[in-house]
């Protein structure tokens, strides 16, 4: 009797990351019962020592802090596949560690979350500080809630919700996708439309990262072409503007047949102010559309090369 092939899937150790890794593993297991799947979790640098937004000025950006240990494990052969929230992946990828599958997209939008009392009943917005560490979100919140204070909030989704319910904040902004994957979608008091708050590039999509030159046919059970094309457009736009480092950039793409529509948001400097725009064209040219929209919104910026996604 032949032994089943063992597949070690790596992911972060947070509640949300484990739930996301298990979603990918369930899809693989359903299509390939011959594979023996093992989840290997890691506490990343970002989980251990994430900086508040006021200190996130490292030119390498903060996104790599959530992926470094997983990428080292892939390169060293300790795991065979890594599962990430796509929005956590740096825009420029190591060619040795390509993204080999993009999952079907969950709700890409951001959500406003209010505290609840001991009986789980939602409380009123007290008008105090909004817990939010993302500069992209903070800038757009300033337009939705003029004059409202924002303060950094750290920790996993359950930890942030606990801090909210303890009264440390009057409101939180969290990704709707993360709430849904944790079965906490009822905590969202309002889901913000893309026109109100442009999401982070890749928000709601899971990325499977592998090693160059290896076969990943078993990921056909995970791959979603619509999500991949949207991701390529969004990450191309963000990469051209330096998004994912210190630049606040948002991007959201949708597809309809062979056409792709991309909405972008950026703030390159205080004098220019925030800029928003939209572009549409063939989905086969997803990355080019992202670069063209970046050039349109920031004609005087020194644009960077493609996303490597």
Low-pLDDT runs of 5+ residues are 52-61
Strand order of the largest sheet: 2-1-3-10-4
Q: What composes the largest sheet?
A: 5 strands, mixed
Strand content: 15-25%
Query: What Rg do the Cα atoms give?
Result: 19 Å
Discrete helix count: 8
Element order: H for helix, E for strand: EHEHHEEEEHEHEHEEHEEEH
By DSSP, the count of extended strands is 13
Between the first and last Cα atoms, what is the distance in angstroms?
A: 40 Å
Q: What global shape is seen?
A: globular
Average residue-wise pLDDT: 89
Q: Structural class, from helix and strand content?
A: alpha/beta
What helical percentage do the residues reach? 25-40%
What features would you describe in this structure?
It is built from 8 helices and 13 strands. The chain has 309 residues and is of the alpha/beta class. Strands 2-1-3-10-4 form a 5-stranded mixed sheet, with helices on both faces. Strands 7-6-8-5-9 form a 5-stranded mixed sheet. It has a 3-stranded antiparallel sheet with strand order 11-12-13, covered by helices on one side. The chain starts with a strand and ends in a 12-residue tail after the last helix. About 3% of the residues have low confidence.
Give the topology, please:
Blueprint: E1 5-12, H1 15-31, E2 35-42, H2 45-49, H3 68-76, E3 81-85, E4 99-102, E5 110-113, E6 130-131, H4 135-144, E7 150-151, H5 157-165, E8 171-175, H6 176-181, E9 188-191, E10 206-209, H7 225-240, E11 249-256, E12 259-266, E13 275-282, H8 286-297
Parallel strand pairs: 1-2, 1-3, 6-7, 6-8
Antiparallel strand pairs: 3-10, 4-10, 5-8, 5-9, 11-12, 12-13
Helix pairs in contact: 7-8
């Amino acid at each position: 009797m032949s032994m089943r092939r063992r597949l070690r899937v790596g992911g972060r150790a947070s509640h949300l990351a484990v739930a996301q890794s298990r979603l990918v593993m369930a899809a693989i297991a359903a299509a390939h019962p011959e594979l023996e799947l093992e989840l290997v979790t890691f506490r990343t640098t970002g989980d251990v020592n994430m900086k508040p937004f006021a200190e996130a000025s490292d030119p390498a950006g903060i996104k790599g802090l959530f992926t470094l240990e997983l990428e080292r494990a892939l390169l060293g052969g300790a795991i065979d596949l890594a599962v990430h929230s796509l929005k956590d992946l740096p825009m420029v990828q190591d060619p040795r560690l390509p993204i080999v599958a993009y999952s079907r997209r969950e709700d890409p939008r951001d959500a406003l979350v209010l505290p609840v009392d001991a009986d789980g009943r939602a409380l009123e917005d007290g008008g105090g500080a909004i817990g939010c560490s993302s500069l992209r979100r903070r800038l757009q919140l300033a337009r939705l809630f003029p004059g409202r204070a924002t303060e950094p909030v750290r920790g996993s989704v359950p930890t942030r919700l606990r801090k909210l319910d303890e009264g440390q904040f009057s409101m939180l902004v969290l990704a709707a996708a993360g709430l849904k994957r944790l079965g906490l979608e009822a905590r969202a008091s309002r889901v913000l439309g893309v026109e109100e708050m442009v999401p982070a590039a890749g928000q709601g999509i899971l990325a499977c990262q592998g090693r160059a030159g290896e076969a990943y046919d078993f990921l056909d059970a995970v791959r979603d072409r619509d999500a991949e094309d949207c991701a390529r457009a969004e990450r191309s736009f963000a990469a051209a503007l330096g998004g994912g480092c210190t630049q606040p950039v948002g991007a959201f793409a949708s597809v309809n047949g062979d056409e792709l529509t991309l909405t972008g948001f950026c703030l390159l400097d205080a004098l220019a102010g925030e800029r928003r725009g939209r572009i549409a064209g063939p989905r086969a040219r997803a990355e080019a559309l992202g670069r063209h929209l970046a050039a349109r919104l920031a004609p005087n910026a020194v644009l960077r090369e493609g996303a490597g996604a």
